[in-house]
Write a structure and sequence with these properties.
single chain, 67 residues, mainly beta, two-stranded antiparallel ribbon
């Protein structure tokens, strides 16, 4: 039997790091969704985390518009 559950993620944050010739930066997103899939008959378990690209914020709107 395979079961799946979707959770509402509150207060979480994804942080990403970027590097370029002109400098490094750190961006964040607070728009997360996730799912956990569990199969009790074997060890085929999976977790997924989704981040909306439009929510990525590097504090540079020009850079963010190219994501």
């Amino acid at each position: 039997m395979v079961s799946a559950q979707t959770y509402e993620i509150k207060g979480a944050q994804v942080k990403y790091y970027g590097s370029h010739v002109f400098g490094d930066w750190i961006g964040i997103s607070n728009d997360l969704n996730g799912s956990i899939f569990y199969d009790k008959n074997n060890s085929n378990h999976k977790a997924e985390l989704q981040v909306a690209l439009r929510s990525l914020d590097s504090r540079n709107s020009n850079r963010d518009s190219n994501m």
